[in-house]
Amino acid sequence: MNRSPRRATFALSALMMALAGCATVDDGVQPPPQITTVGSRDLPAQGRSAEGPLAPLPAQVAAAPAAAPVLEDPRDAAGMPVDPLSPDGQGVIDAEKARKDLWVRVRTGFGMPDLDSELVRQHERWYASRPDYVQRMTDRGSRYLYHIVEEVQRRGMPTELALLPFIESAFNPQALSSARASGMWQFMPLTGKDYDLKQNLFRDDRRDVLASTRAALDYLSRLNKMFNGDWQLALAAYNWGEGNVKRAIARNERAGLPTDYESLSMPAETRHYVPKFQAVKNIVLAPQNFGLALPKLENHPYFLSVPIRRDIDVAVAARLAGLPLEEFKALNPQMNKPVILAAGTPQILLPYNSADTFVKRLASHQGPLASWTAWVAPKTMKTAQAAELVGMSEAELREINRIPPKMLVKAGSTLLVQRAETRAADVPEHVADNAHMALAPDVPPLRKVAIRARKGDTVAALAKRYRVSANQIAAWNRIDDGTRFRKAQALVIWVPTGSRIAPVAEGRALAKAKAGKPVRMAAASPNRGGAAKGMKIRPTRLARK
């Protein structure tokens, strides 16, 4: 049926229905929070009192006396170096054992069934044609392989597993995938939490060499048991997810098909995952067959663990150890900030010959160890207010904490701030372990307004009509932003308190609608979550077929 777009009477009635449906809803309900959270929590703690070494805040407790400077004794700042895998903690190297090539230990411990396919050949050719890439991988891996091989063999697992970081991250502990998998073993955030890998503002244990290796081998052991000792299925589950592999097996069982790795239907990445792993294994077993040479790896610890008992800047720790900053970060990649918090970081890793140097230099160090500390916002505030309270410029506070413009710091947020002489206490454990930062747009308080969608309306059309985004309407009403309404439906939008969305006079609207002129209505600013002041509402025009 054809409908004329000049039927102004119909357009006006539809318009008045929409305007009549706009009303403030005074039910005390607050708008959904628009919060960006960084750290271990989804929402900020509300009403939390000031915590941390900068509390109490001078501006809030004027009568509080100034704290006396804390005298640091660097001799208490670190413990003696130990081998994290040594039962007695002494880290003594067996000279005869150390002379052996670590690659020999890896090869003799292989225990998985081999996969032989064209995909394996394809990946062998890929690596063989890139000797420089293989060299870089093995150079990086030389820092970590001894520790991983020791852990693998201590658990009685096949030593091929020590090669898995070659295909996960090329042994780059700072690797971050587009899917947010991080670290040498490429843990996703939720899987990392399942295996006790802390992720907060100050550290991400998915990148921690010791913690991530422990978690990865725990996970792989669990997957191997889950799939009845089939390592190929376990590796597929490590890449694709155990639930996906189980469902693929169930589909094959229902169809009367085999359920081994090569028989399952899976994404291309997982289809190539085990062949790629097998190719690396084959190269390690006989590099000369591929025109490659692997550098000899020493069969002793590359690093020792040094217990940390005082907060210390990353740059200071690297300098005391006599290491370039990048080398220090390669062994301690879990640090998210330029300061190491003793309460949240039990140890740092240092090369075998650097650990003793670090402890000796630390004992005679003069001056502060840390120039940064943590401060917890006692209430929601502007960054300028926070900067004033902690004695920093707003620009510097924004830069070091990566706070975008026009954002509020929510109550309970942890910020990195300069450490003052009178605030020299180390960050307490509950702050170090739960540090997060939550930000919200710096906008006026909002109120909820009821509107009505007409039959045939889309979320995009409503967004244009009320000068808000389709994403906002979808989030406020828990609908998809591509929704088309099959019948009239009550919805809500949020507008700044004090703004009005009111129907215009019927006679004036009718005259304008008949003349095909825009109808104006008072509303809110387009950037404040409501309709724009003076926005133009044109008569509805129904499309012709």
Can you offer a commentary on this structure?
This protein is α+β, with helices and mostly antiparallel strands and about 550 residues long. It has helices at about 10-20, 95-100, 100-110, 120-130, 130-140, 145-155, 165-170, 190-195, 210-225, 230-240, 240-255, 270-285, 315-320, 325-330, 350-365, 385-390, 395-400, 430-435, 460-465, 470-475, 505-515, and strands at about 25, 35-40, 305, 310-315, 340, 345-350, 370-375, 380, 405-410, 415-420, 435-440, 445-455, 490-495, 520, 535. It has a four-stranded antiparallel β-sheet. Helix 13 (about 315-320) crosses helix 14 (about 325-330). The radius of gyration is 31 Å and the shape is flat.
Q: Tell me, what's the shape?
A: flat
Percentage of helical residues? 25-40%
How much strand content do the residues show? Answer: 5-15%
Largest sheet: 4 strands, antiparallel
- Uncertain ranges: 1-30, 40-71, 502-511, 518-545
Signal peptide: 1-23
Biased composition (Basic residues): 535-545
Pfam families: LysM, SLT
InterPro entries: LysM, LysM_dom_sf, Lysozyme-like_dom_sf, Transglyc_AS, Transglycosylase_SLT_dom_1
